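Methods: example folding runs. The two proteins below were folded one after another, and each record is reproduced exactly as written to the output file, sequence line first and structure-token line second.
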Amino acid sequence: MSSTAPGVSRTSSTVPAASIAAPVAVHVVTSVTAGVLELVNESRTRGIPLSRFRADLGALGSVLGRSRRAGHAVLRALAGDSAAEAPRPDSPASPILRLTPDELAVVLGAIPVLEPVGRGRPCSVPARLSRAGASESRAGASESLAGPGAGALPASAGGGAPVSVRQGRLGDCWFVAVMAACEHVRPGFLSSLVRVRPDGLVEVDLHGLRGPRTVVMSARVPPANRAGDRHLRPNVASLVEKALVVGFAGHRYVWAQRNFAGNALRVLTGTWCPARPVPRTLAPIAEALATGRPVVASTLVRPGGSFLLPREDDPARAFALMDGHVYVAHGVSRTDEDGHPDPDAPLRVHLHNPIGVPEGEPRRTDLYLSARQFRRAFVSVNIGPPLH
């Protein structure tokens, strides 16, 4: 099951209760950060590659235990983030030590606790993306979107180039579908949220309950079970999903599963957009999309799991739909049930499954449903704010 439709989720808030950790021990974060900076300084002074100090870095990381929150606090302190939970232990008499992307990569590789926990085996070995965007990672390695030789993400990501979004093997369709919906009505929306820093870290602008919130993190993502482009290669969508995990889901990908599409719209746009019943006609959906408002639709959780929806042109055939899942509304037009334009056909809403299921009868990634079929198969819709 990928996600849970509004009204039946077992999780009622953006952050699962289990992810609410105890306050970070400031002295531990400060001492580990100081130790890392001391090793970096010694590496530079003696002209020795920082990778030679990997064992010492690992020993420092062991002080943090398994606390991903403390690990992220160390990462933010190393980055000189003024909002970090622990002060950076630089001497006032000396200039602030800035890590290079290569040094940061070594630190991340030696101290896995600095990264969130992915679904499956934790990964911390960096890899690169070629200029063409093809992954060059080895099995078990995290994939990097920034740093030396990485050209998948520009330093200024505010352009209008569309970003492909596809859900991985994680039950966070409530968030991935909303990412895809925002990108559909405003190409480049996800890129506008992400900035690459000179040290190789990235900043992702999201929204919390108290207003805008910037998540500082590395540009490395798990090699599997996460969002990506249509071939599930890591892209900007992977980074925004990771920012959700780091900023709102307790640094664990599995805790980002099963939530509400309305929460995703709040996190991405800063506007609360509650679920509403499926409209009797498709006019509200068409109007919302025409004015640049993202639209997603949710199916209800069913005891039997996925279900079949009979076709109107041939009741002996049917479409397969996932239960407890969120789909993306792409448009409303006059087409047949296979998406072919037909001026004599009724209006149908084009719904896209962010998972991208294998095509074939009865499975379809893209559905074209009449208003009657739409009401029969879906329980609610969420309409976001104008993004144009």
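Second run, written to the same file directly after the first:
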Amino acid sequence: MEMSLIATKAGDTGLGFRDCDAKNLPLFIFSSSEMDTNGSDSSRQIQVRFVTKLEPPLKAPASSIAVPSYLNRMGLSEIVNSLLKSVSSEFEPQPFDFLVDGELVRMSLEQFLLAKGISAERVLEIEYIKVVAPREQKDPCLHDDWVSAVDGSDPRFILTGCYDNISRIWKAGSLCTHILEGHTGAVTSVSILNTTGVENGNIRLATGSKDRTLRLWMLDVAGKVDYPMKIGAYKVLNGHMASVQSISSAPLGDKICSGSWDCSVKLWKVNDSEVEGDSVSIKKRKLVSDMVEESQAEIEAMSSFVGHTQCVSSVTWPELETIYSASWDHSIRSWDVETGKSPWNMVSGKVFNCLDVGGRELIAAGGSDPILRIWDPRKPGTLAPIFQFSSHASWITACKWHSSSQFHLVSSSYDGKVMLWDLRTAWPLAVIDSHKDKVLCVDWWKGDSVVSGGADSKLCISSGISIQ
């Protein structure tokens, strides 16, 4: 079907301007797809004013204009781009999203106003923001087996865990510089520990595995060596009676917690005094490709939290005093680190595979259905989710809040998709379809990229995501 175009200027019937010089205003073009196909009156106009927190050259004139009520975000984006082009001839058009009263517009203006009960008689203030969607898909980093864990918390590199029992460091998201060998089972979880207090630019890492152990690693990612370099763990953490499913670092990086198929949550010390005592043997292992298992220190858990009745599938440690855990027993618990008690226990009707705490201290979790749910644990007397996102087609495997946004998070699923979400709309902002099989893990990287691993043995990187 051919696309029909409607061109209008100030003074014509399509668009009207108020307090503007008509001769300096640009030509606006809209496609037929922007029209209301449900028979609404296409001649109806709404007075709007575009506002933004973006800096010039992305700040449009603040004068109010009249726009057709059938326009959706695509048509509104064309208007804003034309206004910006009129201010700067060198401006390159880009897509925008639009907020009315703090909610993203995902239908025509007329439908939105009717749905929200907003009067069309007043000047409607519309805030425009950059579209949250990846602009570039980098070449995937290939592994030898399923990529089951990923951590993108360090902007210099990405840490992955794999079903071949190995963890890897990918410098700049492309070059495998370090291979972490030692586990005898699939690596299920990885964590980059806080580097505060660690000397000589070394970083510390933690990994969990189906071999029932956690391992601690130390390496210098800035050093010049022949790549890829094999590294051995300097500590083995024993204590779980079944596979370790999830690990998480304390905010200060001096402790980690772990969740296991033995139904427990355990706490472990990884403070600097213990690291210093083993520093000599660490340096020796850096020069030897075949690490000696006997030289590794073994430590026991400092405490164990018991309450779950099935696999503890996910743990996170967002605050010094509080740990959260999700389980296959259909529950999410909070734990007081000092007492080991669980003051908050939320029971759902589904198995949980993942959880994360972020945004406005909200809990995001997914499991054995396609729905990503959000809870507010601060609301007493109710265990109902405050948000539900249901665009996935299969089980949800991982979810992660953006570190600098209270609205944005990402999820992955067995349906092979990665989805970007904003609490201000029920629809996904973007669907990333870069995997050819189940997606098993996902994280943010450098604030503007999403990294994910899957059953296709690939680490995929989607970049150029603008989060305001």
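Comment on the second run: The mean pLDDT is 86.
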